[in-house]
Amino acid sequence: MQNIHKKFVLSLLSSSILIGSAHANTITWADTSDVYSMDPHGQAISPTLAFLHHIYEPLVRYNKELEIEPALSTGWEVVEPDLWRFTLREGVTFHDGSAFTAEDVVASLQRATHPDSPIRGNLPAVAKVEKVDEYTVDIHLNGNYPLLLNDLTNVYVLDKTWMDEHGALNPVDPSKGEQSYATTHTNGTGPFVLDIRRPDAETVLTVNEQWWDEAQHNLTRIEFTPIASDATRVSALLSGQIDMMLSVPLQDISRLENAPGFNILETPGLRTIMLALNQSPETLGDSGDNPLRDLGVRKALYQAINMELIRDKLMRGKSRNAALPVAPAVPGYDASLDERFPYDPEAARQLLAEAGYPDGFSIGLDCPNDRYVRDEEICQAIAAMWARVGVETRVNARNASNHWQTALNGGSDVWMFGWATLPMLDSFSILSQVLTSPHDKYGAWNPGGYENAEVDTLVEKISVAQDEQERLSMIAEAFAITKAEVPLIPLHQQPLIWATNDNIQLPQTPDNKVRLWYATVE
Fold it and tell me: 376 with 522: CB under 8 angstroms?
């Protein structure tokens, strides 16, 4: 059955290439999964939102340096701490020729923040949106909030009249089996127009000749095909059936590097892989107590992990070892804090003895086996390292959905997770959701029960700070506190690896989002 599936996919790709060959400057590319929906407010899946950015646009966007710049708005001002005014770009048209105005922004943000919207959490501070005039919009917030621009980068604008005509003014949730006209049709302002949509087979875009922006690409057509199998994607690239692929397996990098006619694009990603330590229960397993409540134990586990060995052997030198829970590209990263506690098994044994565990203890280490690069293998390696200092470790590897269900319900002793700070792209993301005690809107990803009143206070201040330098200083202070207390163990930023034909020029950004409006084909 698997071979039949591969033949079917390759046959489909061959047909697609023949069709696309008549079009100049076509890029055909593949990733592991399909675009989930054509509705930009119908899901919160990063790869799908990244793809839809070619069709739809936000008020502000990230450029190829991951700097925020104007898009459908040309400027903004903070009228009051809880009121932002946006000036909209004039002369923009949707793909059907309709004019872009303030009414489209109001309707789109109301749709995105609707109680039924799967992406309502992407605009947590928005209370109300009002039209001031045809090209001015006011966004009212629940309070002082400095990260509105970051949040808006992932919220796209649809045509109000088009939505109204097709009964799509309110969002639907595909995870509940719901669909609307916007699930399968589009009408954006972006650089490309939807031409063909065949779910799980192909999605084809053609260039928008009426795009308001000055094009930095020379593409006329984009053809996307999902190919789940790593081996099939690599074979399709090598045989010329696709021009570009994401998620190159580590074991295939040298094969592609040695094959003529291909470029490998790689960079450490934004996603930091970490181990969370459960300090919440008084006892763990049959130990009679919870050793993870002791700082010396937590630091011992940290210092017993040889990240250089994991990087060189398991990750083939492609990862970036980390001491902070955020990557260098994330605002709030502080290089002065990004130095790991040294790998030192002898010091780890001494810390365990001082904590009252000279003979060690037993513990569970829960990991996904289908979510991160070499996730289960990394956990097995860490378990062996901990065993050398006397900590008997049971590795529980599960699929991601079962892994999260156990971990987020507090059922794991130690558990692996990754955090990329998306879509916020700011250190406040992990501080507020992972390193703050669970209360109100904070600590949703802190089932381990870490709590520090000083950190909680800093996070509250960071959430409303308007002065950027003051805000960054408080973020650094919070990271310094949490680094010393070891509520979690940062491991590394896993690599992002793409491969393209060598006639394609394309910037790669650590958020792992393809932006083909910067791509050129020679």
Answer: no
